[in-house]
Specification:
There is one protein chain. By secondary structure, this protein is α+β, with helices and mostly antiparallel strands. It has a single domain, classed as Amidase signature (AS) domain (Amidase signature (AS) enzymes, Alpha-Beta Complex). It has 15 helices and 17 strands. The longest helix is centred in the C-terminal third of the chain and has 24 residues.
Length: about 475
Amino acid sequence: MSVFALENYPAATALVEALARRALGVEELMAATLARIAELNPRVNAIVSLDPERALAQARRYDQEFDRHRDEPLFGLPVAVKDLAQTAGWRTTFGSPLYRDFVPAQDDLFVSRLKAAGAIVIGKTNTPEFGAGSQTFNPVFGATRNPYDLSRTAGGSSGGAAAALACGLLALADGSDLGGSLRNPAAFCNVVGFRPTPGRVPGWPRLMTSEPLAVTGPMARSLPDLALLLSVMAGPDPRVPLSLPEPGASFRRLEPARLRGLRVAWAPTLGGLPFEPDILRVLGASLPVLTDLGCEIHDGHPDLRDAPEIFRVLRAWQFAVRFGPDFERQRAHMKDTLVWNIEEGLRLTVAEVSAAEVARSRLIERVAAFFARYDFLLCPATQVLPFAVETEWVREIAGVVQNDYLDWMRVCWAITVTGCPAISVPAGFTPSGLPVGLQIVAPRLADRALLEFAYTFTAATRHGERHPSWA
């Protein structure tokens, strides 16, 4: 097998199969991957802290120890880990100058699972400072650019991962999502980003292992590849009370969903949010494929009226807990939006946090009642198209002023507080060639049903097969 016999980078599933039967050597794949990164990464700045020599040395060991590793599900695949996750012995900056030279002694749980599954870490993917904001730029590595228009952002906070996938630097990538950080960059870069049910991918080590807003999840260019990565990342861990009991391996292979008779709610504005018109036009043109496949599509959305209070209070509280010590020592070296969010958290009262938790419980009850009537919820994955890479955050959408750097991503974080799994999938392009993502939401714990529904949609539309022309 020629490593780049396909246009752009081959699928992860195809690479694993070729490596396992020795039609492709691990070192051969690694050398070709590193050559591609050297050629294309300078244009997008997606992969940082790259260590080619270490990666090639490990690839050679895998070739020498083939019989020991050949049955590992990610055998020989190069991966770069989001720079918010700890990687033992590998620089992890969190996109902050405070941690420019930090080298952790341990891996995050999912990183150790990737390694145990045969993946080879080659570097990190770029992220905004401490993952704050859906625009990937930081003072350590600079900005990540969108492969479909290099003058625009790749989104964030998993922007480096999404851009690396879109231009074929990697076959798989991890990401994390609090307010949309898996879904936003996936939509901006025409890839797939999955926010699983909280606990599906246990987070450890963390200060708060049972807090359900922030999750880790997989990104890929197709649903089969995404399912492969999820099968390694997911699964219970006794140190994480929130973790779900199903083994990750149960997600390894997907089957197309049978859509006939499914009731699907379509919420083009999710209850009145502003959107750039081109997004709604593209999504409106993509939905008939679902009716052709047998879905019943109805206008409808859950009652999410308390989502802003819940999200803003609980996010600010988390930021104060997580970053308070760094804030006390090094406030002057943090970006303004991060400082603001930490200060908001430090001002909170017990009564405000308690009220937000009570409101979240009531909202989840209403969402459960909504999903008693519908199988899935469809809405846009973003409210805007990829914007200029020099713009930190969007100030206005369709004439509606956005008050701060959180407002413009409400279509994602309103879903976050429901506790439901959600995925962004490619859904078409504007006339100027910018990608648009469709967000699909399922009831809590219905992760597999959601992935198979998304698989059927993407197989029918094939929008994800359109790659950047220059890559």
